[in-house]
Write a structure and sequence with these properties.
InterPro entries: AB_hydrolase_1, AB_hydrolase_fold, AB_hydrolase_sf, Peptidase_S33. Belongs to the peptidase S33 family. Pfam families: Abhydrolase_1. The structure is a single chain. The protein is α/β, with parallel strands linked by helices and about 300 residues long. It has a single domain (about 5-135, about 190-225, about 230-300), classed as Alpha/Beta hydrolase fold, catalytic domain (Rossmann fold, 3-Layer(aba) Sandwich), CATH 3.40.50. It has helices spanning about 45-50, 50-55, 80-95, 110-120, 135-150, 155-165, 170-185, 195-205, 210, 220-225, 235-245, 260-270, 285-290, 290-300; strands at about 10-15, 20-25, 30-35, 60-65, 100-105, 125-130, 250-255, 275-280. It has an 8-stranded mixed β-sheet with strand order 1-2-4-3-5-6-7-8, sandwiched between helices. α5 packs antiparallel against α6 (about 155-165). It is globular, with a radius of gyration of 19 Å. The two termini are about 30 Å apart.
Amino acid sequence: MKSLFISLFLISLFANGQNIYIKTYGNEKNKPIIFIHGGPSGNATLFEGTTAQKLADQGFYVIAYDRRGEGRSTDLSAKFTYEEAFQDLNFIYKKYNLKKAILLGHSFGGLVATLYTNKYPQNVDALVLAGALFSQQETYDHILDTLKKKYSKDSEQLRRINTVENLDKNSAEYRKGCFELAGENGFFKMPNPTPASKKLYADYEAEEFFKVNIRNKNAPLLFYQNERQNNIDVRPILKKIKTSGIPIFGIYGKQDGIFSTNQLTSLKEIVGKNHFVLLDNCSHYLFVDQQNAFLSNVKNWLK
């Protein structure tokens, strides 16, 4: 594949004095969806390399971007606050003359999407939470409690878990410790990879998007330094958004190890049973693990 930096629709834009990587997929006359990636320190490369064009083929105008200071949007002066993320989104709306758009938030991107929808409800047609964080402390507690049960007879692992558990709950070190333990224990991996998912991951790793899978290791540290809302529960905000009339949808992996059953049940109660689905044999990267089911549900909800 030719370098994606010279492919169609690749745009590196200057937003509020910052270089923002943005790429669009599909017909601009179709209903717009803005994909908001995880992080802090994430990027949209996995979504772009596997799913963006296929979602556009369902009849949407898909906009993927990397937040300021993350991924391909290099910016040494980025603050990594929610307000800064809102500014980048507002730039996208202005650049593409969008009156409204659907926000598709993955992982940490779900928090960005939820808070943006609360602040700018007039800009949002619908909010889609895809493996999105919504109650951070419950996620951290679930990770650590699950591992304490798993390693109940392993004193060395229990010491590691207890060390993380005793860190400041509003610190980058605590977040990092929880997610590192989760990653080491397969919390983000689908239980039984299918031939389709194996091919998607392999193709991604062999192509250009994987080569630009840039991670800014300083992003989480700066986020915790500059953003006061660093360990939040947005369920009250989601209830408010739903009351305002903006539809909310939730799509999650049944085996996504960072969410407890109680968490997901509480979210389902907020969004409504017809707006919520759990995909089996699926973990955190659901748009790759179970891509066809992901695309089908999103299309049925939004079209």
